[in-house]
Design goal:
The chain is built from one helix and four strands.
Length: 76
């Protein structure tokens, strides 16, 4: 979706959601949401890439039916 001079993307999944205990550190390197796989770098890298392009990434919602993230980037 385009919002003025920004492009806003909503990315959602249908997984178990992030545990409440990790929400405050979700975008920190090596923070894991409780899964056994991965190093806990994916969201931290994605957030830094978004910032490097003048944008932002944030958790919009998380619950037992999945999580949603918002990615906002400058258009053009």
């Amino acid at each position: 979706m385009r919002d003025g001079d920004e492009v806003v993307l909503m990315i959602s999944d249908n997984g178990p959601g992030a545990p409440r205990s990790v929400l405050t550190k979700l975008f920190r390197p090596f923070s894991k949401a409780g899964s056994d796989g991965g190093a806990g770098l994916g969201l931290a890298i994605a957030k830094e890439l978004a910032r490097g392009m003048g944008g932002e990434q944030a958790l919009a919602s998380s619950g037992p039916t999945g999580s949603s993230f918002v990615l906002t980037l400058r258009a053009g």
